[in-house]
Amino acid sequence: MAKTKNNSKDEKQNSLVDFAGNVQGWGLGGNPFAPQNSRLDTVFLNTRWNLVSNYRSVLAEAYAEYGLVQTLVEQPVDDAFRSGFKIVTNELEDSQKIELQRFVEENRIIEELKKSVVWARLFGGGGLVIMVEQNPAKQFDISKVKKGSPLEFKAADMWELYKDQTNFWNPWEVQDEKKMYNYYGVRLHRSRVLPVCGKEAPSFIRPRLRGWGMSELERVIRSINAYLKNQDLIFELLDEAKIDVYQLNGFNTAMLTDKGTRVAERRVQVSNSLKSYLNALILDTNDKYEQKQLSFAGLSDILTQIRQGVASDLKMPMTKLFGVSAAGFNSGEDDIENYNSMIESEVRSKVKYLVVDVLKICCQYLFGFVPEDMSIKFNTLRILSAEQEENMKNSQFNRLIQAYSNGLVSVGDFMVGCNNEALLPFTYAEEDIQAMSQSGYSKIGMEKSDKKGKKGGLFSKFFGGATEPGEDPNAVQGNGMNFPNKAKKGNEANEQGKVKEVDVTSNKFTTPDREKKPLPEESFPYKGHRTKRYVEAGH
Q: How close are the terminal C-alpha atoms of the chain, in Å?
């Protein structure tokens, strides 16, 4: 009995098995009566406790080898910049805005900016290096950027910015001016890099990321592993989809000797060669041949479920991620709308001010000053059909022509609006816009301006612009064409001055003996003079 007690005492002193059993029974929650799906054990055991964002080589290889990783990293960024953006500022003329956009496109500055955002999504952080003719170790001075001087932007991931440093520093919190980036051996001042942060991590994990963000792969590791495992399984099953089974008489006995083994191998080789080339198989009477095939039923359903899990983790529709068309009665528009909302909140909202900073540097380079109210507005992500696009343009054109007819906008503003929204199949030249803006007919339904001495342009000649003093408005021009004149048309209207009506009994036009009366004179504050508007019918 004493021996038994000593043994039990030894077992209690080494109670690792009991501890493991208690953990399994009680769980991390400490409630043994809680249901299995409410305990913390499952979450605790299925947590990696190791961040893939700290493994540069794994992320780089996965990006290079897996198309799925490239798609989930690049596709949202490409879609965010696909429709472009508009420059919003009151300090730049329209021609300067066009020049700025052309400069950004020709020098592929937006492409480099997109790369920096892609690296930030892949590695958890990146940046846009500003390369100018200044000391890279000194603070960047935007006022020294001049037209003709070297200016370039280069995308870099977070690992390229800390070449010789093991412990990274947080560029958003650390204020030490001695902290510098190391871009391939070149010391860069912190103001020479526009940093881009990945997805923000919780405070418990943030120190392990040195202040930078998480990789987009962090939240899809389990889903991607399931996807890759499914692909490997299908690949292995394809190799074993068809198996030939030979039952040779005396096979076991033959394998006991070297000569019998060679004879058995020879028989199988001959049988395979006959089966492959002659589509026939010759066997002994006592031998048997059997072919077994594996079934792939259910694998497609498993793959669909795995794809849905990956798409759910990334908040991307399967049509974008895997190129799968919408199934059933679903047109896919709701999925695209949700995806567009994700682009607006997770990509565009983060890169908006980065684009503004780049445009300010380009403005200093091109125009010699930085607009204080510089901003951008991304175009809509929604892709309209040809019919929807035409309907939208018709609505915009009708709204614009109504404002023009009511005298709310000038002819120059009307032409600029048509150019900006591409409402007409052609584009007004800047000379034509200036000529029409200087002519006397900047409003529809208004008389000729009293301003003298302004020479009309090409469009003013066609549409009745102001003439030179002493010039006959009805005279034939040098090319033999008689251009219509607004004043001539007004005189004819005064001579006619009749409102035509239709006699429904005789089906003839009659002209009643009553003169048309002008509308009350009204003051137009936007023009600064009075005018008369008449009601006219067909002549």
A: 131
Residue 33 tokens read as: 């009566």
- DSSP per residue over 367-436, as a string? HSS--TT-EEEEPP-PPPPHHHHHHHHHHHHHHHHHHHHTTSS-HHHHHHHHHHHT-SSS---HHHHHHH
- The SS3 of residue 267 is helix
- How far is the C-alpha of 312 from the C-alpha of 299, rounded, in Å? 20
- Judged by DSSP in three states, 29 sits in coil
- Location of structure tokens 């529809």: 444
How far is 38 from 28, CA to CA, in rounded Å? 11
What share of the chain in percent tops pLDDT 70? 67
Cβ atoms within 10 Å, residue 40: 13
DSSP string, 272-327: HHHHHHTS-----TT-EEEEEE---TTHHHHHHHHHHHHHHHHT--HHHHT-PPPP
Sort 240 into a burial class: Cβ within 10 Å, 0-12 / 13-18 / 19+: exposed
pLDDT band at 446; cut points 50, 70, 90: very low
Pairing of strands 288-293, 375-378: unpaired
Question: pLDDT for 47-90, tens place per residue?
Answer: 888 899 999 999 999 999 998 999 999 999 999 999 899 999 99
Cα-to-chain-centroid distance, residue 291: 52
Residue 182 burial class via C-beta count within 10 angstroms: exposed 0-12, middle 13-18, buried 19 and up: middle
Amino acid 217: pLDDT: 92
Residue 476 to residue 133: CA distance in whole angstroms: 61
Q: How confident is the model at residue 458 (pLDDT cuts 50, 70, 90)?
A: very low
Phi, psi of 86 (to 5 degrees): -110, 140
CA–CA gap between residue 136 and residue 152 (Å, rounded):
13
Burial of 254 (0-12, 13-18, 19+ CB in 10 A): middle
Written as one letter, the residue type at 442 is S
Contact 137, 188 (CB under 8 A): yes
